[in-house]
TrEMBL record:
Keyword Magnesium: no
Domain Beta-lactamase hydrolase-like protein phosphatase-like: 2-110
Single GO BP term: sulfide oxidation, using sulfide:quinone oxidoreductase
Record's protein name: Uncharacterized protein
MF term (GO), any: quinone binding
Pfam family, one: Pyr_redox_2
FAD/NAD(P)-binding domain sequence ranges: 150-263
Gene3D superfamilies assigned: FAD/NAD(P)-binding domain, Protein tyrosine phosphatase superfamily
Keywords from the UniProt entry: FAD, Flavoprotein, Oxidoreductase, Quinone, Transit peptide
Cofactor(s) recorded in Swiss-Prot or TrEMBL: FAD
Alphabetical list of InterPro entries matching this protein: BLH_phosphatase-like, FAD/NAD-bd_sf, FAD/NAD-binding_dom, Prot-tyrosine_phosphatase-like, Sulphide_quinone_reductase
Entry superkingdom: Bacteria
Length: 557
């Protein structure tokens, strides 16, 4: 017998025997629901036998037989009623547990998010892809799909999505392209570090989505609920269905603010801030200006995260301000890093360490933020150093800059497109999905082992566009991604260590060393970040003008 827990209120199981009933009672379950008709298999006990064993064990037992493959809307609603009326928690079973899980999934569709239902079922070992449209439709079978159909559907209207749409348009005029994204505003997220350092104004990093969607590209202003890659379909909230010939997936990642206990309740007050949010980056600068003495903590969660250098960028720009105004001697700066190194590419570490020393910052490795008490101004970390028992440490603070934990979006993690860790599963060279040949991915959501930065998306967009167009023409992939990413580390106001690297930490500089030596802080790299990259982003990258980003053709197909 298997206890496959879905929630605290219900577990499911394949067929049970009468001798299993007492173990079910001992595990704390108070009711049993049998969803298997009697006589379905020669080796199954009858429901009356199970019911008798349940009565002897002090459990309620109900028979709701459902024929395999015929879970109706009505039987799902009945199952939901049973869950409300029976003493809980409930233990349900059928031949494999799939029918019971399907009944639960459909019965909860009106009160739970589809991704939460799919995720809970998946964690219990059941794939609900076959009823995903019904789940999205509130547990009922859709009567009208209302299909729209496009040559290419792009999920996500961020830097990656708009750039790849523009790159496709420059290569293949007349393509029917749709971008699916519910957001009204598009953000230049690399600018938020500069906002938190008092260099940019927040409003310069935001524009309306409508102003950026390429001409001729359809914008479907909706959230994605699920994918059916076997049917070439994307299911939207409300159960609308968008069909495609080819799909590009780039919705970014999810900042898991709730992954740190107490964090959401104190963000934006009590000295707790983050440059990872548009509305909080100005508060970072307010705190930096106002802090004259005390302790400033800067946190970094486990990888992968968006722009791995951003947590320490905030530290350096803050430290530089305190260095220049004379307050540094009275401020204790501490970098709380869940990882074990300052930066993943060793060539840049010596230059960064000089600034760690300049700002007298203490490096605390293997410290992962798990809890914040804003009112008490205390942060608690789980310390997991190699070869030592994990422990918890609570540190007082006057200012706390948080980089939140980061995961793939919920609707990606539970989809057939995801790998075991929840990221879109692609070939790291072609960025084509490993299982579904008409699906590609780029940006923060896919599982290639590259840095998750806007600079990476700038290089990836033309590569994906090139390979999608090659596929339309019946050719093999034409372009290969080398893992390029860039992280302009703002070590002081006016100087940047321009880290550019690819797979395996290989250095991939864009400029000759006499102009910008990326392993050293330079004024030229600062001018690039401050004055050149923003207009390149808005006026080139998002418009398909591939400045220093044109892919090389590597195959004749």
């Amino acid at each position: 017998m298997e206890f496959r827990k879905i929630t605290d209120d219900i577990a499911v199981s394949p067929q049970i025997a009468t001798e299993d009933v007492q173990a079910i009672a001992d595990a704390g379950y108070r009711s049993i629901v049998c969803n298997r008709p009697d006589g379905e298999g020669a080796d199954q006990p009858t429901f009356q036998e199970i019911a008798a064993a349940a009565e002897a064990a002090g459990l309620r037992a109900v028979h709701q037989p459902v024929v395999s493959g015929k879970v109706t809307d009505e039987t799902a609603a009945e199952f939901g009623t049973l869950l409300k009326e029976l003493p809980g928690p409930v233990f349900a079973y059928c031949r494999t547990g799939t029918r019971s899980t399907t009944l639960w999934s459909l019965s909860q569709a009106r009160t739970m998010e589809p991704s939460a239902i799919l995720g809970a079922a998946k964690a219990a070992g059941y794939d609900m892809a076959g009823v995903v449209r019904r789940i999205v439709n509130g547990g009922k079978t859709p009567t009208d799909e209302g299909d729209a159909k496009f040559d290419v559907v792009i999920v996500g209207g961020g830097a990656a999505g708009i750039s790849v749409a523009s790159s496709l348009m420059t290569r293949r005029a007349g393509l029917g392209i749709a971008i699916i994204d519910p957001a009204d505003i598009h953000y230049y997220q690399p600018g938020w570090t500069m906002v938190g350092g008092g260099v940019f104004e927040a409003q310069t990093t935001a524009r309306t989505m409508a102003s950026l969607i390429p001409k001729g590209v359809h914008w479907i202003k909706s959230a994605v609920a699920a994918f059916e890659p076997d049917n070439n379909s994307v299911i939207l909230d409300g159960c609308r269905v968008v069909k495609y010939d080819r799909l590009i997936v780039c919705p970014g990642l999810k900042l898991d603010w709730n992954g740190v206990e107490g964090l959401v309740d104190t963000l934006g007050k009590n000295g707790v801030t983050s440059n990872y949010r548009f509305d909080l980056a100005p508060y970072t600068w307010e705190l930096v200006q106002g802090l004259k003495k005390g302790r400033a903590l800067f946190t970094q969660p486990p990888m992968p995260i968006k722009c791995a250098g951003a947590p320490q960028k905030a530290l350096y720009l803050s430290g530089d301000h305190w260095y220049r105004n004379g307050a540094l001697k009275d401020i204790d700066i501490q970098f709380m890093n869940a990882g074990g190194v300052l930066f993943g590419v060793k060539d840049y570490v010596p230059a960064l360490m000089k600034y760690v020393e300049r700002y007298d910052a203490k490096l605390n490795f293997f410290h992962n933020l798990i809890r914040v008490d804003g009112a008490a101004k205390q942060a608690t970390f789980r310390v997991s150093k190699p070869d030592t028992e994990p422990a918890e440490v609570t540190v007082d603070f006057d200012m706390l800059h948080v980089c939140p934990p980061q995961v793939a979006p919920d609707f990606i993690r539970v989809s057939p497109l995801a790998d075991a860790a929840g990221w879109v599963d692609v070939d790291q060279s072609t960025l084509r999905h490993k299982t579904f040949e008409n699906v590609w991915s780029l940006g923060d959501v896919m599982n290639a082992p590259n840095a998750k930065t806007a600079a990476a998306a700038r290089i990836q967009a033309p590569i994906v566009a090139e390979n999608v167009v090659a596929d339309i023409r019946g050719l093999n992939p034409q372009a290969v991604y080398n893992g390029y990413g860039s992280c302009p580390l703002t070590v002081e106001k006016g100087k940047i260590v321009l880290a550019e690297f690819g797979y395996g930490g290989a250095l991939l500089p864009s400029f000759p060393r006499w102009f910008i030596d990326g392993t050293k802080p330079t004024r030229a790299a600062w001018l690039l970040k401050e004055q050149i990259l923003p207009p390149i982003y808005w006026k080139a990258m998002l418009r398909g003008r591939e400045w220093m980003a044109k892919p090389e053709t590597v195959s004749a197909g």
